[in-house]
Amino acid sequence: MNDTAIRVDGLSKRYRIGRKEQVHDTVGGAVADFVTRPARNLRRLLKLSRFSEDGPEPDDIIWALRDVSFEVARGEIVGLIGRNGAGKTTLLKILSRITDPTRGRVELYGRVSSLLEVGTGFHPELTGRENIYLNGSVLGMRKKEIDRKFDEIVDFSGVETFIDTPVKRYSSGMGVRLAFAVAAHLEAEV
Known about the structure:
alpha+beta
């Protein structure tokens, strides 16, 4: 039996950062900008997904992670500490399969639970009840598992009075509490 829970090998993630828009002083400059904007936007959109591997690196590229490797054994507890912009959240997003790495490989052995971006996938037109089932299934829970934990999730969230109300009528705090309650009740190995 494999004693490894997480194996990360040569993990790197890069992003292209945006540029500040130019403000024009004259009507002529604003009109020229309006006419040429569609072509510039198309070039910018195409540039977002193209990275050249040869030549000097453009100054609009930022590496959130570069060549990170580590292993975590089953039962081991690991904390990530670092300054702002060090790549902690990016690493967690890659481990949670929220985003893909630029290079490298991640191997996860077991079901992963993430409390990042809770509520992603909640549909505002659906009720709290319906969103519990939707979000639970997105997180990898089976219907029987959700059925079994439903009352615990609702009780933990504190929104039982509003459970059959569309989520668009919830306060932002209520929505986050419900989403957190679903994620917190996922039984994960990682």
